[in-house]
Amino acid sequence: MKDIRNIVILTGAGVSAESGIDTFRDGGGLWEQHRVEDVATPEAFARDPDLVLRFYDMRREAIQTKEPNAAHLALARLDREWEGELLIVTQNVDDLHERAGAKRVLHMHGEHLNAWCTACDVRSPWTGPLLDRPACPECGAAELRPDIVWFGEMPYRMDEIFEALEQADLFVSIGTSGAVYPAAGFVRNAREFGAETLELNLEPSQGTAWFDEARHGPATALVSAWVDEVLGL
Ligand code: APR
């Protein structure tokens, strides 16, 4: 085993599934309940803002009733105790990593608990609905939208992510289907930079062949065991 000092962890909806938050592409998942084109593109927002705002109001309310699970707690422990570099790059827009205590977290697809003003470009902490067009706390304009990266929009902080991938000795992907780029390509980037790669997922992801090792099962069990292993190193 390579001397592991710098770790990059990519998480997806599967890490929050056992907290009762729907994933996107599993049976009964969000994209079976709603058409992406209707709720998760800038075009959809321009066409029918009420439908989009109602969808995210519902999800913003729902995540505030959920609790972090053992996988979130194990990653928060790793964050506290790991002396090397560590970055948790999450595709998730819930705040369960932070509520579990993790600090070194980067939300590449945005956050439910922020509202983004398209008039003054300021993001403000937000827990309530946006459907009734509330005023921006910063500039007062009624131009708030969910702070979510929609399909066709650029994910956040890609420079920081690539910097961390370049330095990584180990890349771990947890609870993601590998269906959406650029996140689905990180495993190949990490490999090119010489990192070891590990997949922890309920089932083989679309990119499973790119990983040096893959372990399949529920995140609560896999992640806790893996963190014990890593901290035991
Ligand atoms: N433990 C571990 N993995 C799980 C669990 C679980 N309890 N439950 C589901 N999974 C796995 C599934 O097997 C699947 O591979 O989590 C993955 C979830 O995949 P998706 O629903 O596609 O979610 P994700 O990969 O995060 O989606 C990526 O797509 O819709 C966009 O922007 C959205 O961030 C999202 C991106």
Describe the model.
With 233 residues, the protein is α/β, with parallel strands linked by helices. Helices cover 32% and strands 19% of the residues. It is built from nine helices and nine strands. It has helices at residues 30-33, 36-39, 42-47, 49-63, 70-81, 96-99, 158-167, 186-192, 219-231; strands at 7-11, 86-90, 105-107, 110-117, 123-125, 144-148, 170-174, 196-201, 213-216. The protein has a six-stranded parallel sheet with strand order 3-2-1-7-8-9, with helices on both faces. It has a three-stranded antiparallel sheet with strand order 5-4-6. Helix 5 packs parallel to helix 9. The longest helix is centred in the N-terminal third of the chain and has 15 residues, at 49-63. The N and C termini lie close together (10 Å). The mean pLDDT is 96. Adenosine-5-diphosphoribose (APR) is lined by residues 12-14, 17-18, 23-26, 29, 91, 109, 175-177, 179-180, 201-203, 205, 218-219. The site of adenosine-5-diphosphoribose has 23 residues, from loops.
Cofactors, ions, other ligands: adenosine-5-diphosphoribose
The number of E-state strands comes to 9
Radius of gyration: 18 Å
Roughly how much helix do the residues carry, as a percent range? Answer: 25-40%
Q: How much strand content do the residues show?
A: 15-25%
- Strands across the major sheet, in which order? 3-2-1-7-8-9
* Oligomer status: single chain
**Would you identify the regions where 5 or more consecutive residues have pLDDT less than 50?**
none
For the sheet with most strands, the description reads: 6 strands, parallel
- What is the global morphology? globular
Structural class call reads alpha/beta
Helical stretch count?
Answer: 9
Mean pLDDT: 96
End-to-end span in angstroms? 10 Å
Written as H for each helix and E for each strand, in order along the chain, the element string is: EHHHHHEHEEEEHEHEEH
